[in-house]
Amino acid sequence: MTKTFIRLLGLFLYFIPIIGNAQIKKIGVPFITNYNPKTYKAASENWDLLQNSKGMLFFANHFGIMQFDGVRWSIVTQPENRSMVRSLAIDKNDKMYVGAQGDFGYTVQLSNGQYKYTSLVKLLPDSAKNFGDVLHTVIRNNEVIFFSNEEIFIYKNNKIKVIRPNEKFDEFFEVNKDIYVSDDVRGLLKLKDDALVEIQNSAQFIGMKIRKIFETKNGLLFLTQKKGLFLYQNNQLKPFVTEADYLFKPYQISAGIQLSDGYFGIGTRQTGLIVIDSAGHLIQHINKQMGLQNDYVTNLKVDTAGNLWVTLKEGISMIQIASPLSRILDSSNAETKIYCSQIYQNKLYIATDNGVFWLDWEAYKKGENENIRFQHISGMSENVWNVGVFGNSLLAFEKNGVFEIKGNSAQLLAKTDGAWQGVLIPNHPDLLLVGGYNGLYLLKNINNSWVYQHKIKGFDESSRIIVTEKNGSIWIAHGYKGVYKIKFNTTFDAVLNVEFYNQEAGFPSSLFLNTFKINDQILFGTRKGVYKQDSHSKKMIPDALFKKYLGLESHIRLLKADNQNNIWYISGENTGKMTQKASGKFAVEELPFRKLRYLYVPGFENIQTTANGDVFFGTQEGLIHYNATKSRKYQSKYKAIISEVKCIFPKDSLLFSSRYDVLPTNTESANDTLSPVLSYSNNALHFSFASLCYDEADATKYEYWLEGFEPKWSDWSLQTEKEYTNLSEGEYVFHVRAKNIYDVVSEEAVFRFEISPPWYRTSWAYILYLMLFGVLIYAIIKYQKNLAERDREQLILNQEKELLRNRAELNEQKLALEQQNMTIMRENLETTINLKNAKVASSTVNLIHLNEILLSIKELIGQIDKKNDQNVNFSLLTKINRIIDHELKGDQHWNEFEEIFNQLHDNFMQRLKSSFPELTPRDMRLCAYLRMNFNTKEIAPLLGISVRGVEDTRYRIRKKLQLSSEANITEFILNF
Q: What residues form the membrane-spanning segments (predicted)?
């Protein structure tokens, strides 16, 4: 219910601007915007158009239904048979009904932006399917009527009723709620109860080739193709004479539309658009020479903003008939940059960079445009900076000097080094001060003619801007230096005094200063507002009045008062009018003049006003006219739209678009919003957007905001596309809104979408991560426990090692101590051994010596015995000898020796005896002496035998020891 109410309200608002704003200006040519086939990239022919509840425009093009959103053109759908589209109609739900060639049906928009076409021809019987172009499609009540020359189809409740002619239908008309059909056999018919009935005297319409019917207060107005206009009243048909009949009959009427206040727009086949009023007066004739791109008009419609859209045989044109601004053009359109305009003796003069031109202003205002041309004033062909009326003369100020214009020619009055403009000297109306490129010049009015006098001495600056005061002071603004205030001497041939004002005098800057005279007050335009001179300090200060209304942030380029106490201004890029109210306050109006932005010639902005309320603006694109009686509503709401959304990575893939065949269609119904969920790989998006405001669409600015990514709205810019890359997962809302040249902000458009997280950031992934985290925690705890256990074991091991090391150190210390004790003991033992060895050696030496003595004694006794010395007692000798033998045997001494020897040589005797039991005691004694490294000679006395006996004993011992003949017995004994 709410949606239906909103749509009905939208349709109601759709028609309100048409009623209030569609009247076209009579003076000048409305602004025209042309769209050629190269611009919209489709077929040149367009037959019909409509606008939906949002404000979107659709055109019946040869290639299909073409959409225009103010920025982009696109074919959005085609009939099933791919034929051309000839007619369109739309219901309150934005369902479009389409008439094509041999086909008709309807189209709806899906949630992805696509338009789905459904043909209704399948509901027809086979006998009714052979028809040509469906020229008209009309929605009436709860039925849709499709008209072709062969048949009329009435679609209702999913059924189609077919009405056939006797031969062929000619044309179809919707007049309010009535439907009329012209028939070459029966004349004019009216549709009643799904049947065609003849109106009264219908035969008089046979062969008229009616192209449009309008209902007026005087009856039905008929537009015929070649016979002009007719009025049908009281069942009588009579010609309706107009001022445009000379155009209608030869150039053939093709279409028509009823505008407000009884105006009619009539399209022709060969001469463009003609506008007449209810009385038949010619208001406008807009053809190719006046800016229309083609003279063959196929259809006419007015949009919600009051603009007239004209479909042509080649291209589309938008005529801004609701604007109070228009261009002063003629068919030649010869003028270029305009520096000044002036009305003099009912003629409009314009100063351009190619000289001065004029046209008959009174005739032009009356609409006699067909035969009016701008005519060139001969004698000047270069930049003319100003034209003005001084006394009874029209003077022009040109590059080569001052000229007087008379008729169609100009006469040089004063050759100067360039002339910018002229002003009358206060209190001396016969003296004209001319500002030149390098100073000032004086002209005097003598016998109603201006005569050059001289150049004024003492001032040689460029004097393009001059303003005078009542007291005779002259103010001259130099755009790059500052402002001069000068006074002349009494003869006006020299400058008496010069005062100079620049930034040091209080101006915000010395550059781009200007001076104006408003209500006898000298004011100055600066880059930071309007200034005036303080009467006491003589400093330049901001003017309070203009500070209040214009501020101090804009460059004031022009201030000019008209004769109705309005103050016109150009501030920054804005043109405006300050109108004083009865209370003394001012109302500021700028919106009607926004179209003038960027059109002025920089530095030569000019506004000309007249007593009749006409205002002229000189621009780079010709002369523009304004009339305050033509009003328009500028605060109308409109919509911003999102035209297209696509993912740009890894490859372009469209999410939302109305372009034909770029997205797969489906059977879903159109929704109010679309909220796709995108994979993380598609996290780079490109948005295209536009606004459904067609007035100066190129100047519309946009701001956008991606909620969820950006903290606030962007700055306003002319950009109609925005790209985002590397978006993280989450929900986003893209917002966009527009601001047109009238600073009206559109309704917001939004696109919601969601980016899914990558697989590694999904819920399942987080569960897996949680599990892995648990496992990791468990592993860490386990590892920590193992590590702690290993650390404990390592600690115990280290402690054990430390204990062992300590023990080892103690053992080492103990061993060292023992070794030290052993060393001491060894040293003591060695000392003891040495002592014993010494003792043994000594004993042995003594024994050897003793044995040697004994042997010597024995030998001597033997010698005695041999000599039988009688003097010696034999028995005594025998006893001595026995004693010696006993000592030589040395058993007692041997036992002591053996005990000491075993102690010194690790029980050598016992080990040797154990190993070799066959050894005799004598053998053992010999081995002991060999161990002591005694030689044979030393051993012999110890054994009490001879050396030979020792050798024999050694031999016997070798055998017992089982030594080879090569072995050394001594080495064996020493190593045993």
A: 763-781
- Which of 405, 474, 419 has the alpha carbon at shortest distance from 452? 419
Instruction: Report the predicted TM-score, pTM, of the whole model to 2 decimal places.
Output: 0.77
3-state SS, residue 552? coil
- pLDDT average, residue stretch 239-268: 93
What mean pLDDT comes out for the span 444-471?
95
Q: Of 133-142, 174-183, 293-302, 857-866, give the lowest mean pLDDT range.
A: 857-866
Long-range (24+ apart) CB contacts under 8 A made by 357-360 are 358/408, 359/328, 359/330
**691, 697, 703, 705 alpha-carbon torsion, rounded to 10°:** 30
Beta strands in 728-879 (DSSP E): 730-739, 749-755
> Sign of the C-alpha dihedral, residues 98, 103, 106, 111?
negative
Task: Please say whether the beta carbons of 866 and 877 come within 8 A.
Answer: no
> Measured between alpha carbons, how far is 319 from 306 in angstroms, rounded to an integer?
9
* Cβ burial, residue 642 (10 Å; 0-12/13-18/19+): buried
Task: Work out the angle at residue 610's Cα, subtended by the Cα atoms of residues 607 and 614, and round it to the nearest 5 degrees.
Answer: 75
Cα–Cα distance measured from residue 396 to residue 759, given in angstroms and rounded to the nearest whole number:
80
Which CATH number is 416-554's, of 3.20.20.70, 2.130.10.10, 3.80.10.10, 3.40.630.30?
2.130.10.10
Residues in CB range of 356: below 8 A, 6 or more apart? 349, 350, 376, 377, 380, 384, 387, 396, 405, 410
CATH assignment of 907-976, among 1.20.120.330, 2.40.440.10, 1.10.10.10, 1.20.1250.20: 1.10.10.10
Dihedral in degrees, nearest 10, Cα atoms 591, 597, 600, 606: 20
Q: Which is the CATH superfamily of the domain at 42-164?
A: YVTN repeat-like/Quinoprotein amine dehydrogenase (2.130.10.10)
Q: How far apart are CA 551 and CA 569, in angstroms?
A: 13
**857 pLDDT higher than 80:** no
Phi, psi of 905 (to 5 degrees): -120, 40
Alpha-carbon span 428 to 564, nearest angstrom: 26
And the tokens for 200?
């009264």
Per residue in 361-380, pLDDT (tens digit) is 988 888 776 677 899 999 99
Mean of pLDDT over the chain: 87
pLDDT in tens, 543-552: 999 999 999 9
pLDDT tens for 472-518 read 999 999 989 999 999 999 999 999 999 999 999 999 999 999 999 99
Omega prior to 650 cis, within 30 of 0: yes
Strands (E), 328-481: 338-344, 347-352, 355-360, 375-376, 384-390, 393-398, 401-406, 409-415, 419-425, 428-436, 439-446, 449-456, 465-468, 474-478
Tokens of 796: 């115990």
**Higher-confidence position of 25 and 152:** 152
Q: Which CATH topology does 640-758 take?
A: Immunoglobulin-like (2.60.40)
